[in-house]
Structures are given as structure tokens and as C-alpha cells.
Amino acid sequence: MKNTFRTKKKFGQHLLISKDVISKMVQFLEVKPEDVIVEIGVGTGNLTESILEENPKVLYGIEIDRTAHTLIEEKFKGKENFRLIKSDFFDVDFDDLLRGERVKFTGNLPYNVATNIMIKTVFFIDKIEFCLFMIQKEVAEKLIGKPRTKDYTFLSVFLQTFYSISYLMSVPARFFYPLPKVTSAIIKIVPKKGLKIDNPYQYKYFLSDLFQNRRKMLRSKLDSKTLEEAGISPQKRVEELSLEEILSLYEVMKSGHR
Length: 258
Prior knowledge:
CATH superfamily of the largest domain: Vaccinia Virus protein VP39
Helix content: 25-40%
Strand order of the largest sheet: 4-3-2-5-6-9-7
Radius of gyration: 20 Å
Mean pLDDT: 91
Shape: elongated
Distance between the termini: 58 Å
Number of strands: 9
CATH architecture of the largest domain: 3-Layer(aba) Sandwich
CATH class of the largest domain: Alpha Beta
Order of helices and strands: EHEHEHEHEHEHHEEEHHH
């Protein structure tokens, strides 16, 4: 592997090389014959190969690194249910690609863009059955962060609004090549039913503004009428608000009571 493919720092590439961990990921993915699966970051195809052994309906593999494309095409040239997407994840038109199919997203996400990838999935959440991702442990802890903790951030609230999030297992650095400087984690995110946010872009901007200076009391950020209508004490800080309180505040502000 080391002689045929060189990982690139600019793409945040750390290849998962543990067969046991790959087997666990495939187990968590619960591959069925009717499944359409999208893998983000094929790399040398270690996870891809194990998913294909379960024979899903189709596996789309997204890979930005042009130097990996020939290797991937050669490795999976006999697999009729595999499609290589030679693109940056952020340039893929999922409406056009999936055409109404609901899919499972998976991948050992590059550390440098993992957060942005997970945020992006919210904007086509209606196409997602669930996502199973390998990410940096520190980021995974933020995803499940609770109020009044250091891990409770904009990212926690934004993704918890749309997804039920499970931290499945930690994965030490020794299971990757090259060795990362951090521990990783496998997480599963499942879209919530009955979502109340009809404009995720507007909601994202609202949260970004709200979480600036998150330790300041709300009375210094918002007027008393807005807080009163939302049923929130002006002495509270953003980092103390529950998801329910944040959603209440959003509804009040969206209604124009500022």
C-alpha cells in the first residue's frame, strides 16, 4: 500500500487499515440487498471492499484525489454495483445523483473537513436513512455535547436539532496509516422524525450568531421582550440553554418579535 499510494496532508488522509475496525463499521452499517450507499473518501478502498462483500444495490464512492482514481478503478473493475464519483464531496449534486433514493452515508472522513461534511448533510437530510462516520474523537464528543459543558457548541446544537446521535466506539491511532496524532471515533447519526425547521440555512445563521460569545448573559445579546416570549431567563447564558429552549427562541425570532 505504501508503495502504490501516497496519502496527502492537504486532503487530511489517514487510511483505516484495521480489518477488525472495518468489519465493525460494516456491521454497524447493516447492509441490505436494497441499500444505496454513499462512501465519502474511498482512498485505497479498504472499507469499500468490505461493503461490496455485503452486496448492496449500489455503492457510490466519492474520491477527490485523482492519484487514487486509477487504483480504485482497477481494484473494483468487476463490481457492477460500484460507481466511482471523481469529485469533491461538496461539488456533488445529490438531487441528480440519487434521484429520490434514500441512502446510507458512510466513510472515514478527512479530519480537516469532517465538520463541514456533517453540516452539509443537513441540507439534503430527506435523502438520508442514516450516516455512519469515522471522525476525530474530539469532534464526536462535541456532537453529543450537553448544556453547561465545554463540548456544547454551535455544532452540538445544529446537528442535534436534526439528528439523533450515537457514539459507537473509540478507535486508537494505531489502526490508521499514517498514524494520526488523535484518537478517532465511530458515530451514527439518524434523522429525527417530525423536524420543525423548514429553513436550515436561516437556522444555521441564527445559531452562528447566538453562539458568538456564548458565555455572555442573554440580556446583553437579546432584548427582554424576545426572551420573555421564549420563556427564557435573561440571566442565562447561551451555553446553558437546552435544545428545546433554543428552538423556542428561534421560533420567536423567526416570527419577527425582536
